[in-house]
Amino acid sequence: MTTAIKPEKKKSFWTTEEIDNLKTKYGTEIIVDNGSLEDVSTRKAPTDCYIIKYVRDDQVHYDLSRGSKITLFDMYWDKFKGDLKSIGYGNGTIKPNLWGYQAPTPSRKKRKG
Fold it and tell me: Which is deepest, 9, 40, 43, 44, by most CB within 10 Å?
């Protein structure tokens, strides 16, 4: 008999309302929220991402976010105050202008006749 181990769901420190307002208030975007160091060190992210390290409930947490370093600092300082520990460069390899790009679906050409 085997038992399936369920991965524990990580608690998000951001409400959905806060995440929706980040783009307009700070001009930033959170790509990975409360992920492990392996999650935020992904290479399948834009090159302009930053890894944010902060402490909550005596545990270290990581986010992967886009934006300028100054606006990211302002955003995380407003949320976590002194619990913000570091902001470092991410490991992404995708050009920022191609992030989220989807190729257009090819339209069928009309036949003449």
Answer: 40
DSSP letter at 1 equals -
**Cα–Cα distance for residue pair 49/67, rounded to 1 Å:** 7
User: Which residue range forms the structural domain that includes residue 70?
Assistant: 25-91
Residue 75 lies in a domain: yes
Q: Per-residue pLDDT tens for 1-50?
A: 555 554 556 778 888 898 889 889 999 999 999 889 999 999 999 999 99
Contacts of 45 (CB under 8 A, 6+ apart): 31, 32, 64, 90, 91, 92, 93, 94, 99
Which among 41, 26, 85, 89 is positioned nearest to 61, based on CA atoms? 85
pTM of the predicted structure, to 2 decimals: 0.79
CA dihedral 57, 62, 68, 72 (to 10 degrees): -10
Rounded Cα distance between 35 and 49, Å, is: 14
